[in-house]
Structure formats: structure tokens, C-alpha cells
Amino acid sequence: MAISERSRSALYRGLSELIDDEEAVGEMLSYFPARDADEPASKDYLDARLSEMETRLMAEIHAIRTDFTAQSVAFNAQMRTMVQWTLGAMAGLIGLVVAMGFLQAP
């Protein structure tokens, strides 16, 4: 909540009489900024800030998508390797079972 310089001076004088510590009074008044320093945000300022935030957000989304794509490629490669090894092992096991069947046949 902003206050005028006149009110700020009156509060400072009044509080200084009650409180001996000038630093404490100054710190307390810092929570009530003067109107001069507390200007409302303009539309142009908000547009610029939103544009900056949008740019940063789009960069982050792009980075996440790039990382997701890289992870997806790595996962697909690992799955392909796993399927190849599993099919190879199954083919070998079937061949072993068939060979054992021929060895046991009379």
C-alpha cells in the first residue's frame, strides 16, 4: 500500500518519538513504499514481460521435446535389441528341443 511523502514524514516523526532505533523505524516504513517509486505497470511493460516469458517458455518446451525425442530413439533402439536377442534365444531353444527330439527318436 503506497503512502504520500507527507504522510510518510509524519509517520517517521511520530514513530521516531516512540522508538529510539531509527533503523527499525526506517525498516518499518520500507514496507509502505512512496507513490513515486510505486508506479502501476503499463500495458507496454506487461506486453514486454509476457513476450519474454513466452519466449523462455517456448525455449523450455523445445528443450523438453528434444530431450524426449532423444530418449524415445534410445528406448526404441534398446527395445529392438531386446526383441532380437529374445527371438534369437527362442529360435535357438526351439532348435535345441527339435535336435533333442531327433536324438531320442528310435
Short description:
This protein is an all-alpha fold and 106 residues long.
List keywords for this structure.
3 helices
Q: Looking at the structure, what is the overall shape?
A: rod-shaped
Mean pLDDT: 86
Please work out how many helical segments DSSP would assign: 3
Strand coverage percent: under 5%
End-to-end span in angstroms? 101 Å
- Alpha carbon gyration radius: 37 Å
Find the structural class using helix and strand composition: mainly alpha
Task: Give a structural overview.
With 106 residues, the protein is an all-alpha fold. The protein contains three helices and no strands. The chain is rod-shaped, with a radius of gyration of 37 Å. It has a domain of 39 residues. The model has no long low-confidence stretch (mean pLDDT 86). α1 packs antiparallel against α2.
Topology:
Blueprint: H1 5-18, H2 22-29, H3 43-104
